[in-house]
Amino acid sequence: MQAGKSLLANQRFELTIERLCHQLLEDWGNFDNACLVGIQPRGTALADRIHSRLQELTGNHHIEYGKLDITFYRDDFRMHDKPLAAHPTEMDFLVAGKKVLLIDDVLYTGRTIQAALAALQHYGRPDVVELLVLVDRRFNRHLPIQADYIGISVDAVDEAYVRVHWMEQHGEDEILLFDKKV
Asked: Could you tell me whether strands 64-68 and 34-39 are parallel, antiparallel, or unpaired per DSSP bridges?
């Protein structure tokens, strides 16, 4: 496996998540009438951390949090050679009339977010939807979607690929840039 270039690791990684949480506190207050929704599968690792830290910072241990599967809402789900495996959706609340924060790890083409917005409609009509991503790949966007909260922006072109490693899954927190998908 080829080695990727480390863009953000360890302490700076944690600091980035802490900064995002403080930005949210400034804009959202104590999260009354609001909820967090992590996009399955890769957005939930970030959403878990954001949710946990926000509960610590606000003292509000009732911030609603769900995990949304978008597998069959994607416009490309029929283009795969093998059957897709859906991830569990864990949403025990409605988003109708609420402020919703969608959370994903990497914003690239925008197709994942488009699918998440479609899937989210099954839980009601939110008042506001905002997007938080750990990595914004600024080039090659297919849809006019942009994040409201960004951990790090990356200018990755052509075949380049961004991968996020999480302590819980990979043994370390790190964002890597590869020349091509590995």
From this structure: parallel
